[in-house]
Amino acid sequence: MLIKSKRGWELPDSQATPESLFRIRRSLIKTAAAGPLLAVPALTLPIAACAEEEREADPSAGLYPVPRNETYTVARDMTPEKYATSYNNFYEFGSHKNIVKAAQKLPLRPWTVTIDGMVEKPFTIGIDELLAKMPLEERVYRHRCVEAWAMTVPWSGFALKALVELARPSSGAKYLMMQTFKDAAVAPGQKQVWYPWPYTEGLTLAEATNELAFIATGIYGKPIPKQNGAPLRLAVPWKYGFKSVKSIVRFSFTDKRPTTFWETFGPREYGFWANVNPDVDHPRWSQAKERLLGSDEKVPTRIYNGYGEFVTDLYAGPGMRGQKLFM
Ligand code: MTE
Fold this sequence. Notes:
Layout: H1 18-32, H2 81-84, H3 100-103, E1 112-117, E2 123-126, H4 127-133, E3 137-144, E4 149-159, H5 160-167, E5 175-180, E6 200-204, H6 205-208, E7 214-219, E8 222-223, E9 233-235, E10 248-254, H7 261-265, E11 289-292, E12 298-300, H8 308-311
Parallel strand pairs: 1-10, 4-11
Antiparallel strand pairs: 1-2, 3-4, 4-7, 5-6, 5-10, 7-8, 7-9, 11-12
């Protein structure tokens, strides 16, 4: 579906008032009833208000901050926390960016994670037990949304590889499927029946065990807030942001490529691989540049979001021929 809108950075300053943005957003929300908003390049919205007292204390708060792994520090300014934690995509709570308040309904405990499929022995584990088993560290990563906005944030968490090792997949397993919770009473967006809930994502096992693949459980030296995907979400910085599934409850190992949320919804626009590439446009907009959250500066996008040295080899084999690696 074609949604025409002026991009946030194209608005003259005189129009960029909260009221005009509010009106634009309302009209986009109406349009979204017939199709995906992910497809609309981001508008600069006012910072969402959500008083501290409305936020539930996170039981894992004592674990943070954790030591930074300097291997992954990037040469770019950090995005101020208030932008990264108030301008979010989390369709379970609304198909717009201002979901902070709605997301506070997400209960943090009990939270269990099921590990199943092609593993030695399927099991379910509570988030606090999982956190106690995992080697926590901080990594500063870039994040590039398919909508052409970007941020640089310090995630805390653990290498996805550590979770794969805990799971002990069988030799036939080739993919890892990851799923968000499903509970429309908590997440009203899940009443929108045209979306294929629960939000599902997948990686090849080679991608999942690449050193960059990270499970974020914290951000800015604190537990990850609900709007950013508490209590655990994926961070795969060489791919478009929609791969980084939030609030995961299931990791399932399989020998079949999982069908993902956006691929199911819009197969002509969103694929399985979704590697960042400035030379491969989205069918409806250029991917050559990205707008930095906070400053709104537009900067050139880089192949694999600047992480080519870590991941190019993943896509070099003959099996990759003909794959749409960049959508
Ligand atoms: N995970 C779930 N469950 N639901 C979503 O709507 N949106 C994705 C990704 N993970 C999404 C999700 C998209 S499009 C992006 S860009 C990032 O989350 C945004 O993460 P952030 O809000 O922490 O910046």
